[in-house]
Each structure stands twice: as C-alpha cells, then as structure tokens.
Amino acid sequence: MADHDDDRDLERRRKRASFLRELNEAKELRERVQPRKARAARMRQQMRMRTFRW
Fold it and tell me: What is the residue range of 24's domain?
C-alpha cells in the first residue's frame, strides 16, 4: 500500500516539476517578446508582495 502512495507521489512531483519548468519557460519567452510589459508585471508583483500582510 505504501509503495503505491510513493509511486503516486513520485508521479505527482514529476508532473509538478515539468509544469514549473514549462511555466518558467513561458515567463522567459514573454519577457523576451514583451520586455516592457514583463517588467511592469514584475514591478506590480513586487509591490503586491511588499504590501501583503503575513
């Protein structure tokens, strides 16, 4: 039973890693294609993180 959970967990992690890789590639591509928009989005995100109350 534990082996099955480990396999499922491993598969989930593999899918997540793949998804995050693709997400980063998409972000890099967007930054190359639209540098000004990407920079503005990054600034907005930083402001959001700065003003967020933990």
Answer: 2-51
CB 38 within 8 A of CB 31: yes
Report pLDDT for 2: 58
Q: Which amino acid makes up residue 27?
A: K
* Matching residue, tokens 């499922």: 8
DSSP letters for 3-54: HHHHHHHHHHHHHHHHHHHHHHHHHHHHHHH-HHHHHHHHHHHHHHHHH---
Residue type, 25: E
pLDDT tens digits for range 16-48: 999 999 999 998 998 888 878 888 989 999 999
